[in-house]
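Troubleshooting entry. Yesterday's outputs looked truncated, so today I'm pasting the complete records for two proteins to confirm everything comes through intact. If either block looks cut off, that's the bug. Protein one:
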Amino acid sequence: MLSEKALRDIGNIDRKQIESRIRRLFECWSQGDVESMIEYLAPDVILPSNGFWTGVKAPRVGRAQVADTIRRNGSVLENIVSVLHELVIDGDRAVVHRTAVGRRRDTGRRYQCDFIDFFRFRDGLVVEFSEYADAAWMEVEP
């Protein structure tokens, strides 16, 4: 049986790994490196239907479907930077509050938007991800 300290240490390792993965995902997104993001997805990853801005009208299941959605969003939006304000990790789940600054590739219009992102991990990979944007981002500068 593991001691309380050993259990705490195992939890801290998992927590550090999750935090590192989340930070890396947003770095990849800001660098336009969608393919590296996809490497962090579990084969059975789920992206629930989560709002108007992603164009996802039904849950996306599996690495191929979720990768297609990420690629499509990356072709429409250029994320210049994501500033992580708060990251809360509880076991295999994490919630992130962040502000993204970017531009629409089709119009060149810039945006700044707050997001709440929910993650669930298994074996260091994302098995569920959902993202909710502040609708005020539609008010972008010309």
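Protein two, checking that the full record survives here as well:
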Amino acid sequence: MLADIVQDVMIDEFAAPKRDRYQIITEHRPGHIIALDTDLGFERSDDVVIVSITQQGRTTEQKHAMYDALATRLKDAVDLQPEDLLVNVVENTKADWTFGYGRAQFLEGDL
């Protein structure tokens, strides 16, 4: 369910194509993720979730809307507390991708 919510937010807030879905899900036992609060004054539980998104061309406003939507939807759907959600956005360029066959589909005009 968590992966589906992340995908729905990518579609709704980042205007991602529906089949633009590449997710890696890794679960860790309690104590195997260390995610302190960077002196923000709140405590995280063992339910911490870290979402890393690689993207290109999204605005600051889109990123803020995505952060808010993820926190809200995950709280509503799976009762993930907002302080237990960390999101990291990594930007790249069209030259940084191949989707198969060793070709740069963005650069070659396929996408």
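Both blocks look complete. Sanity check on protein two: The domain at 2-27+42-96 is CATH 3.30.429.10 (Macrophage Migration Inhibitory Factor).
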